[in-house]
Fold:
Amino acid sequence: MGSGGLLLVALVMALGVVGVLVPLLPGLLLVAGAALVWAAVVGTSYAWVVFTAMLVVLGIGTAAKYVLPARQLAAAGAPRSTLVVGAVAAIVGFFVIPVVGLLIGGVVGVYGAERRRLRDGPAAWRSTWITLRAIGFGVLIELLAGVVAVGIWAAAVLVG
Structure:
């Protein structure tokens, strides 16, 4: 693959890493897709091994993104329905208030669900904070997986 192609793959991967933080972009899927295109164009067994290693890292990161925060929430006593309400409210917020509506809607949704469940404002805020920290932890895990996968690819391109 020529330098122009490598630059394009690198840009798509960088966009994918940014996509972890910006919900409009498919994040790790962009990283995996760019890696797939690179491996297919290069076509060597080395490229496919690198692609497979990246997929393993991305897969572990994606699974951990959901499993570890869910354990934190279960330990705190927050039901899954709170996350569902938060997610739906985040989607609605995204369309109602462009750019920041996703975050605002998610927080309001989680707080509303917890306020209704607990019937106590301060307890609902504590639970909302725990939920937001768990979600943030999941995003950090996903971000780390994306950065490590891109690092594997970059090292392979530089070495190989």
User: Anything to note?
Assistant: The chain has one domain: 3-159. The two ends are 12 Å apart (CA to CA). The chain has a mean pLDDT of 93. The chain has six helices and no strands.
